Structure prediction request, 1044 residues.
Amino acid sequence: MVDVSNHTLVPDHNLLEEGELEEVLEEYNIQKTDLPKIKRTDPALTKEAEVGDVVKIVRDSRTTDEAVVYRLVVE
Amino acid sequence: MSQQAPQEIGQLSFGLMDPEEYREMSATKIITADTYDDDGFPIDMGLMDPRLGVIDPGLECKTCGKHSGSCNGHFGHIELAAPVIHVGFAKLIRRLLRGTCRECAKLCLTEDEKREFIDNLDRTRALGQDLNDVTKSAIRQARKKDRCPHCSEPQYDIQHEKPTTYYEVQQVLSSEYSDMIAEAMEPGEDSERVTPTELAEETGIDAGRIQEILSGEFRPREEDRKAIESALDVDLTEEDMNKLMPSDIRDWFEAIPDEDIEVLGINSDRSRPEWMILTVLPVPPVTARPSITLDNGQRSEDDLTHKLVDIIRINQRFMENREAGAPQLIIEDLWELLQYHVTTFMDNEISGTPPARHRSGRPLKTLSQRLKGKEGRFRGSLSGKRVNFSARTVISPDPTLSLNEVGVPDRVAKEMTQTMNVNERNLDEARRYVSNGPEAHPGANYVRRADGRRLKVTEKNCEELAEKVEPGWEVSRHLIDGDIVIFNRQPSLHRMSIMAHEVVVMPYKTFRLNTVVCPPYNADFDGDEMNMHALQNEEARAEARVLMRVQEQMLSPRFGENILGAIQDHVTATYLLTNENPHFNETQALDLLRATSIDELPDADGTEDGAEYWTGRTVFSELLPEDLNLEFMSSAGDNVLIENGELVEGTIDEDAVGAFGGEVVDTIAKQYSRTRGRIFINEVSSVAVRTIMHFGFSISIDDESIPPAAQAQVDEAIEEANERVEELIDTYEAGELESLPGRTIDETLEMKIMQTLGQARDSAGDIAEDSFDDDNPAVVMAESGARGSMLNLTQMAGCVGQQAVRGERINRGYENRTLSHFEENDLSADAHGFVEHSYREGLNPKEFFFHAMGGREGLVDTAVRTSKSGYLQRRLINALSELETQYDGTVRDTSDTVVQFEFGEDGTSPVEVSSSEDEAAVDVEEIADRVMESEFADENEKDEFLGETREPTNLSEHADDWWLAQSDD
Prediction:
């Protein structure tokens, strides 16, 4: 099987630690459920990701170098 | 004016409505189907009861005492003789019937399962996802149970016959059970005959009873039946459809416990499932179904009233029949009829039910039809409505207007007004408008006195009224030059479809616009109409001027470049002006620059025959900002170099000044300002108009004709191609053609023929092209990018080429041939739509027909595409309409769910960012330099800020303390 997370076009998906998550929620003044969602079965996710976790996705951007997105893992 | 103070809506709650609530809010019970008595007065407790509100002016509402206009009307109610099903809930009713026990009415799920589904519901609700997915799976799981987990009652399948009938499907003993048993006892292929005694032994039933069963005298009980079934391996049951009456369903639903309906996502505080079965029908107020008096004095009732009359009539008949003790069959018929009328009262477009019709045969427009669809209440009356202060007429071009302006016909200007708040400073002005009256142009139509009374200005009272005008009044004056209005052309596909323009009042009947605003509106002048809206308050006018004015919309957010710019003739003209850099004498040069702000010529470029001359590029350079520097490739293929506002070399064409990303326009709009950009476009178009008039520009059929020698060459090229095609066909028929990888032989042949003919057309085009001069108008237009392409020219002068339908040579028509003029299975070029003539030569009949086939496909494609993309656009807009960029830079929807953490993931506007792929999107260095430049008065100050402080050299030692204190900072 091909591991898509190694593909150049797939950005890094990293699980967020508890502390970091709180910072993020604080920054945007939101609940965890207000985040964009990602399916647990998404091939870009690591095996450890569980429902309820939040992943940090860092994409390359032409304008800002890096574009950061947080997503909540759902079923 | 309404007497009521505006009220704030605290909350809305959606749910089912309690029949008690219907009764409580009802102004009256409706018992009679009649509306008016012989004297024309509404009958009490009839459908037009005066307690339901007033529609006739002058009358007083019997419930609230208000008059027509201020009384919103009041609901009444009809007590239904028997419960009926509400069609809108047919699906939910089916689900509840399937998921709950037929005996104890509890949900057929164990406590653990219920808890799991409730948790799942909470989770789904928090994530803002569809609750239906959860409730559906809950029902699915409940339905799987054969027996109720609470009372062990066996459960049967529920069948739903649309729209409102439900059956319980039970397995019962077949009426022919004795014959079936007897047949099963007969010897089969691999079994011996079973005697009744054997059967009795095997099943454990008394032998005498078996005899009784076999003779049909005794119906076996369920356990006996099952025993016989397993012994003989037969199925003795048949399906029995047991119809559930609405009253049965209501009783069933009443017994469903509150905590069970919570599992299905229903809030038990607000809604009870039995309320989906109607026992009381609310009667809408008369204001919702007004009757109209026709010219002949006859009253015509609203469709809803007609429907209600039907309901009341059947309701009464039902009650009478039941009291008279009519047979069950008749009662059931009437019940069904009542159900039909109540159903069609709510929705008259249900599949499977014939729609209720008016006497004329027109289907009635009932409740659901009032709300649904494009002309319904939501899309037709709430999201979109007709507005005042708007005008629509045909548009026509006027190159003398600025692109910010719009020519408004005087008769429109006199109708559309702007409110002037009169004060000491504009008093005289206001009086002048009023004294002009409503007919003379800068006049006024209405005034509002300080006490709030509105007076119409007429020809008769205008002089008199003008003297009375004083500060504190409001004057509704006509539109005048310089007012700002909103202008729009449908379809409004992007934000530049609605822009603000300054008014220029003009004679005649059309809106006039500068041709350079055609691209954003996608307008032309073949009969297009546009809408204008006059703004009615100062905030709107200010916002329109700052945000919506044409010049502010110069750069398109779609591709981040200019969408305004020179088009068509303008592009041709700038090409003529700069391509060969022609010379102009003083008069000519001045004439070109006449309509611009340049009133002095620069130094002459030289002298010729004793007279000074100016080149085209010099003339063009006059329009550029003084310090503009730019270098790029033009579409004509040469390098354009602009140094310090001087066009040094290169041709100015579509890539330089055109709409949709002309480099010069784009650069000026971004580096200088939108205002400078507007001035530039206006002046380029003015100069272009003078230029094209100077040179003259026309095109005719002779401009596409080629010399006989060239024609001979073209013919030869085509002949050669035909021969090559014949050769290909010969090889194919001889079976010697080798197929390309992944294709069949036939496909290979088709591809090769297409390729050969394509080359033939191209070479014909090349030959034709060679015989055209550079000043050929068609070449000039194609080369400059103004209109048309080299391909168009090829088709006009060389050869039209292969016609295609669905991307293949033309293959349809008769059996094995395209037209009856060819032999069957003729594979040659001309039999499959190759047009070897040019448009100028003319097509022969066969070619013409093939050409029409290809052309038709194009037309059909465009028609299909526009309707498809229109619907796609609607769906996209509906999906995105509630997204909003917040002050913290995130994009969120109305429930505050984050969609993007930074607008566009980079927080930049496409308009402010460089759109080219190879350079950085944001040039930070350049921006920093520019900021520094403007922030500091001189180099020293800047250096100081940047930390390159120079040591003071002329300080006395007495100042050391001060110096030390300074450096401590």
In short: The helical segments of chain A are 18-28. The CA atoms of residues 19 and 30 of chain A lie 15 Å apart. The first strand of chain A starts at residue 12 and ends at 15. Chain A has one helix and four strands.
